[in-house]
Backbone:
């Protein structure tokens, strides 16, 4: 065996490249043995990880072995580039931001497969024993496989890899000496036959000579996962993947275990063997020999090559960073949303899903160069316009498109739809809040241009938008012209919901031009100041020509581009409005200069760091279900992107800042569906959103007064000032004019806001907010409910003529949700008065005087709450959703499945109002909000009654059903509803998201996970948190963080055995407990762990 | 048969093929074909496929064509299978349309088409306009085209001929989407059906109309000058389409068809052809 040397490596030209993925076997390839503790290999792997190389260890052993030898000692930041595929294809581990291992994929044998594996292995053993009389043993404690030890002798208990030749001779001699002709090969054939006979038709038979294994997976599963989940989403072709091993060639007539890594997906990768390979290697494999020492030299060479490549600034295909920007694309797939190619029909939904936003400003993920189906839009939170016509409705203004680029190559404009799109990929990096794009294009003249870019809305400085684009002429030198435009968008017949902005001045400041626009009707002024520069890969700045036209700003660069050179445009756009400053133009100009004084790397780093801080408190980790993991991160990404803790004067529209639908109007969604996420993770955001409701109390009082009530009735839809903005009617495409009555009758929103106020105060103990603002909301909404109904002849308090959350039934009496939440609101009103009197008497005096509140009024609140009509059928425990509901037509919804449209479209509005079909179930929502007020049997009875009658035609509905189903332990149903919610935006067939993401549903998905699967809820006495976990079968564990009264709790919920583990950081104690189980008073710095077995008796 | 030398000569004017077999029913295609030819500035080719080639005057008599009916047209004859001959001529002339009667003897059971029409539809290189014999010879004008649409991008891309006709005729396009109970979710990426979630109809309907029409105009390359209106109907698709066309007294139905006529396939197409109160233009698309 020859030792490796530079000559050996140099003799293999395919290896003289910087590979972007390096995958290799562990034992015998990277290390001599599993006992070895060689820091050398760790060090070289760490250097590769630091350079962005994806390193994949593929091994037959288990994770703890590799963790001990490699990963446990690696630092967290580069470790996210490391993936460990263990148990011969059965598991894949990655690492989260904290460097903690996470199961990315796992194959679990079914209850039917496990006995078959055992039976097959036993039969093979028995057959050999019968034939030879040898001592042959089955090793059963392996995941998804059984090992048949062909030589269970002390001398061969743990043979080193280097002794494989001697081992083979010993095994063959033993088997053939016992009378088994064909030796090892014969055993493998026998195992294949018996496995099939036992019903394991896709069994994987492998051998390391000492053993023959019958399993469900092998290394082909590992490499195929690697190609599908790591390489392909990043656009890494097989040619950029290096796969190393030591057993590719046949041994004893059996293909080497590493040969399984040569698959259809990896076929064009570069394979290298450092093993002795006495039987030679198959065709694609380069045989170096030399064992682990040679392999480490190979890895060290890769470090050098990557360093050289980075220095040279070569093209992305050969670099660690495919975009050649100061940040790298996140490597873990569950952080990425990837759109390959270009499907024009999906463009609008892609634009919504891939939007970048920071709560102040949001930009859809439109193509910078535009297309016939592009619908670019930038929204500035709280900036509405209203046409000067009667009944006009305020709409969120569409600000100028600041991302627009024109790239002209020798007079040919580069567009996706002209010429040949060689590669096109957009990746939303959820972890870093960056939209990446990579595009290789061949124009009709055969010129290939690579365009790479990123875009972000800074979370560190919310007024700043940033775009970078790198252009590389791959096979030509020629004249390039680049135009960067800030382009106002105009309304047109095809964009009916977009409001035109008016240009009032195109001011040219001393160094920065500004585009200034004014929103119609509201008069809000928006100022944008773009600042761009173009530089070559040598650092030379190319001077632009700037034009300030009437309605647009244009910067134009024109230069002779050289083949293989890269040219990068950096563009910073600063946005200010009269909502945040009295002089937005000056503010934007000054701000632009300040940003320009630092380099863009600094800007990006601050943005990425800000996202890092958010994810530290808001991430949810699902171990074992990548699909759910991605959906939850997508949800959190958009929830964070929607919110600005610094703005108390606006709320979050139904589609956040990602699309024009719903005109930016805020609904009850904010308080019931979004607020729990913010309250428990980003309380400053929750506070700002509730302050918006406080500031709009005058409009709510006015609406109540106009309708003849007292107190505060919040607008069903509101824009900036809280005035009712619900359109009075809509023309449906079937020609019907639909009268919209939600603005008149959907009054539960006032109690929903009160609920959010109370929950926020309970969770945060923010007395300052409660005293200054929250209490007044609670009092005014309670006052409204006391005036909204009447105690009638039956002695009950009735609220008539309302619409509940189930909007399929209008003008109903005693809606269960409305009445129950109104009663709760009245009770909290009374409690608020008592609290103010007891703890803040001066404030109470001031409020009572101002609101003219009397003792008699408060007593009346109590009386009316006590008489509130909420009816239950005593025989069934079912709550009547409203008066007469149970008498309506019971329609079997299952008969309409499969169904692609809402039920009221199929049945018509009239029939649906006369039926029991629900858009969303009021009572189920009520259970989720006031869980502890209902006995267990009532919860179960109502869920069972209402779930089959609920059409789930509201995007807000299925997540709440998932929450309740999970709490009731019906995980099959919970998972179905969870998937339905998760795919509302992410399914790629429905076009639902074209007008923006459904941010309410995304907030509800968080609730289904935390309140449903983890079963988290407030302690009934308000002193802490309780948990009652029910995880789906595929979820191994669930981790998330929450805040409780200034303390940080990290929660880990395990599935098998059921367990809860909590770390408390902060300065105060917190009561933590399990529902119907133990409670503890946790001290700061403590970890509390509890686990229990399922089933009967005392389970704790 | 047509001269092979014509093949590939791009300088020829556009053509519209009207197959006639000598039956009275077949003549119902003529008024429609003549209007379409005028709109498309195409020459009208009357095609007859028989057992032998007839002298011109005898052929006109056989086909039942009066001099007025024939004026301005070109006549082509072929020998052999009628459907193959018609398709072959349309292919050689690179015809824009074939306009023919749905059946001249009896319709095939369950299809609504005669044997020849069915074979022509299955193999035609261009859209086929099918005219019911019940329509007779009354004059025809094109003012309104109904485009039934399942929301898929494939259908968007298949309506070019209808868009072209609408543009030439200054006709309006009425795009009709039918929401049917029991219909599976389309799997084609980019499909936009009637909303699955109707959170707030006052916002969902305008957004949906905006999205549907936007995609239709973008993918179908519909010029801004062509009036386009979107309608939603519910129920069994063919019934809904026919009812809509009757209610609106539309002049043409433009259907995209995925190229299957066997039993249990193309139920909507077959039912619409059978019951349509106006001509039906069928454009085959790749599934």
Residues:
């Amino acid at each position: 065996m020859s030792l490796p040397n530079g000559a050996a490596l140099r003799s293999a030209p395919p290896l003289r490249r910087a590979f972007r993925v390096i995958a290799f076997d562990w034992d015998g390839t990277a290390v001599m043995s599993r006992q070895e503790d060689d820091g050398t290999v760790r060090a070289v792997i760490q250097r590769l990880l630091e350079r962005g190389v994806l390193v994949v260890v593929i091994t037959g052993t288990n994770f703890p072995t590799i963790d001990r030898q490699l990963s446990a000692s690696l630092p967290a930041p580069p470790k996210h580039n490391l993936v460990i595929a263990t148990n011969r294809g059965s598991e894949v581990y990655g690492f989260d931001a904290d460097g903690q291992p996470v199961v990315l994929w796992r194959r679990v044998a079914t209850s039917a497969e496990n006995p078959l594996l055992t039976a097959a292995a036993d039969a093979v053993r028995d057959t050999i024993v019968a034939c030879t009389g040898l001592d042959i043993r089955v090793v059963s404690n392996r995941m998804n496989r059984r090992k048949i030890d062909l030589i269970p002798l002390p001398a061969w208990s743990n043979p080193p890899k280097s002794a494989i030749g001697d081992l083979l001779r010993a095994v063959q001699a033993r088997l053939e000496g016992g009378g088994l002709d064909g030796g090892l090969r014969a055993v493998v054939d026998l195992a294949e036959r018996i496995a099939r006979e036992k019903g394991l038709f896709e069994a994987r038979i492998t051998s390391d000579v000492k053993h023959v294994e019958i399993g469900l997976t092998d290394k082909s599963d590992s490499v195929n996962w690697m190609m599908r989940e790591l390489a392909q989403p990043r656009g890494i072709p097989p040619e950029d993947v290096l796969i190393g091993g030591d057993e590719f060639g046949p041994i004893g007539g059996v293909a080497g275990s590493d040969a399984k890594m040569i698959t259809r997906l990896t076929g064009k990768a570069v394979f290298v063997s450092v093993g002795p390979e006495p039987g030679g290697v198959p065709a694609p494999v380069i045989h170096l020999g030399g064992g682990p020492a040679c392999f480490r030299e190979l890895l060290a060479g890769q470090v050098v090559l990557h360093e050289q490549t980075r220095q040279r600034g070569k093209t992305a295909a050969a670099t660690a960073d495919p975009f050649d920007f100061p940040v790298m694309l996140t490597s873990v797939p569950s952080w990425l949303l990837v759109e390959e190619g270009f499907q024009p029909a999906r463009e609008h939904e892609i634009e919504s899903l891939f939007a970048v936003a920071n709560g102040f400003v949001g930009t859809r993920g439109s193509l910078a160069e535009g297309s016939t189906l592009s619908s670019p839009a930038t929204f500035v939170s709280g900036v509405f316009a209203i046409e000067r016509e009667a009944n006009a409705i305020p709409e969120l203004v569409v600000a100028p498109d600041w991302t627009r680029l024109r790239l002209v190559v020798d007079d040919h404009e580069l567009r996706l739809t002209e010429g040949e799109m060689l590669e096109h990929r957009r990746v939303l990096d959820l972890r870093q809040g960056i939209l990446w794009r990579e595009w290789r294009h061949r124009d009709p003249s055969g010129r290939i241009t690579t365009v790479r870019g990123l875009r972000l809305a800074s979370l560190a400085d919310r007024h700043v938008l940033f775009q970078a684009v790198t252009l590389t002429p791959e096979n030509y030198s020629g004249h390039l012209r680049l135009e960067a435009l800030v382009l106002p968008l105009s309304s047109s017949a095809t964009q009916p919901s977009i409001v035109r902005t008016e240009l009032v001045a195109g001011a040219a400041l001393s160094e920065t031009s500004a585009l200034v626009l004014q929103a119609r009707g509201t008069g809000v002024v928006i100022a944008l100041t773009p600042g761009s520069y173009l530089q070559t890969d040598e650092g030379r700045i190319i001077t632009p020509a700037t034009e300030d036209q009437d309605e647009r700003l244009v910067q134009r660069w024109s230069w002779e581009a050289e083949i293989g050179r890269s040219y990068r445009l950096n563009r910073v756009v600063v946005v200010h409005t009269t909502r945040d400053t009295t002089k937005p133009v000056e503010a934007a100009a000054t701000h632009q200069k300040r940003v320009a004084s630092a380099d863009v790397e600094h800007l990006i780093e601050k943005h990425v760091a800000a996202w890092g801080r958010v994810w530290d408190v808001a991430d949810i980790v699902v171990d074992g279900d990548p699909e759910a993991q991605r959906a939850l991160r997508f949800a959190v990404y958009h929830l964070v992107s929607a919110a600005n803790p610094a703005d108390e004067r606006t709320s979050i529209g139904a589609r956040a800042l990602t699309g024009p639908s719903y005109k930016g109007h805020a609904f009850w969604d904010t308080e019931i569906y979004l607020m729990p996420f913010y309250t428990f993770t980003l309380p400053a955001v929750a506070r700002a959103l509730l302050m918006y409701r406080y500031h709009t109390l005058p409009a709510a009082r006015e609406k109540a007064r106009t309708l003849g009530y007292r107190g505060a009735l919040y607008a069903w839809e509101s824009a900036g000032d809280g005035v009712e903005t619900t359109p009075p009617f809509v023309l449906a495409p079937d020609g019907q004019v639909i009268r919209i009555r939600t603005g008149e009758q959907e009054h539960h929103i006032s109690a929903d806001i009160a609920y959010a106020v109370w929950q926020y105060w309970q969770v945060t103990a923010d007395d300052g907010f409660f005293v200054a603002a929250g209490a007044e909301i609670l009092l005014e909404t309670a006052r409204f409910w006391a005036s909204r109904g009447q105690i009638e002849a039956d002695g009950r308090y009735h609220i008539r003529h309302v619409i509940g959350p189930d909007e399929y039934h209008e003008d109903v009496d005693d809606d269960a949700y409305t009445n129950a939440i109104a009663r709760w609101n009245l009770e909290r009103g009374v409690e608020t008065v008592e609290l103010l009197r007891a703890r803040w008497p001066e404030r109470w005096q001031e409020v009572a005087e101002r609101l003219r509140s009397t003792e008699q009024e408060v007593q009346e609140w109590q009386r009316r709450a006590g008489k509130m009509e909420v009816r239950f059928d005593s025989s069934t425990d079912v709550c009547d959703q409203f008066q007469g509901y149970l008498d309506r037509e019971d329609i079997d919804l299952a008969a309409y499945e499969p169904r692609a449209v809402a039920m009221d479209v199929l049945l018509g509005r009239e029939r649906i109002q006369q039926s029991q079909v629900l858009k969303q179930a009021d009572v189920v929502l009520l259970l989720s909000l006031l869980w502890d007020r209902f006995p267990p049997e009532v919860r179960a009875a109502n869920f069972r009654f209402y779930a089959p009658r609920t059409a789930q035609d509201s995007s807000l509905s299925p997540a709440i059903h998932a929450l309740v189903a999970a709490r009731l332990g019906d995980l099959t149903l919970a998972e179905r509803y969870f998937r339905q919610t998760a795919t509302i935006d992410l399914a790629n067939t429905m076009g639902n998201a074209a007008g923006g993401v459904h941010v309410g549903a995304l907030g509800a998905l968080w609730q289904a996970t935390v309140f449903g699967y983890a079963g988290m809820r407030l302690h009934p006495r308000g002193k802490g948190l309780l948990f009652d976990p029910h995880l789906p079968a595929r979820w191994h564990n669930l981790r998330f963080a929450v805040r409780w009264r200034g303390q940080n709790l990290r929660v880990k919920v395990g599935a098998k055995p059921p367990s809860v583990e909590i770390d408390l950081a902060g300065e105060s104690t917190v009561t933590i407990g399990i529902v119907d189980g133990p409670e503890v008073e946790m001290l700061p710095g403590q970890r509390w762990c509890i686990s229990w077995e399922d089933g009967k008796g005392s389970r704790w | 048969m047509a001269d092979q030398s014509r093949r590939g000569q791009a300088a020829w004017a556009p053509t519209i093929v009207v197959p006639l077999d000598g039956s009275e029913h077949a003549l119902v295609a003529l008024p429609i074909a003549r209007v379409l030819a005028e709109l498309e500035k195409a020459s009208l080719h009357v095609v007859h496929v028989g057992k032998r080639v007839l002298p011109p005057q005898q052929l006109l008599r056989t086909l039942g064509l009066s001099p007025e009916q024939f004026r301005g047209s070109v006549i082509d004859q072929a020998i052999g299978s009628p459907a193959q001959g018609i398709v072959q001529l349309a292919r050689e002339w690179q015809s824009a349309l074939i306009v023919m009667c749905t059946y001249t003897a009896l319709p095939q059971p369950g299809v609504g088409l005669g044997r020849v029409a069915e074979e022509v539809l299955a193999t035609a290189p261009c859209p086929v306009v099918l005219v019911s014999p019940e329509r007779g010879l009354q004059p025809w004008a094109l003012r309104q085209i109904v485009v039934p649409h399942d929301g898929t991008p494939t259908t968007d891309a298949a309506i070019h001929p209808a868009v072209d006709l609408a543009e030439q005729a200054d006709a309006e396009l009425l795009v009709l989407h039918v929401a049917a109970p029991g219909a599976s979710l389309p799997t084609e990426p980019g499909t936009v059906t009637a909303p699955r979630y109707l959170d707030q109809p006052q916002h969902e309907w305008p957004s949906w109309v905006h999205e549907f029409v936007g995609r239709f105009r973008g993918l179908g390359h519909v010029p801004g000058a062509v009036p386009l209106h979107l309608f939603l109907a519910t129920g069994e698709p063919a019934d809904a389409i026919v009812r809509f066309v009757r209610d609106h007294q539309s002049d043409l139905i433009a259907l995209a068809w995925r190229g299957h006529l066997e039993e249990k396939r193309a139920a909507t197409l077959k039912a619409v052809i059978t019951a349509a109160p106006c001509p039906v233009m069928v454009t085959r698309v790749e599934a």
Notes: The two ends of chain B are 32 Å apart (CA to CA). The first helix of chain B runs from residue 29 to 40. DSSP finds ten helices and ten strands in chain B.
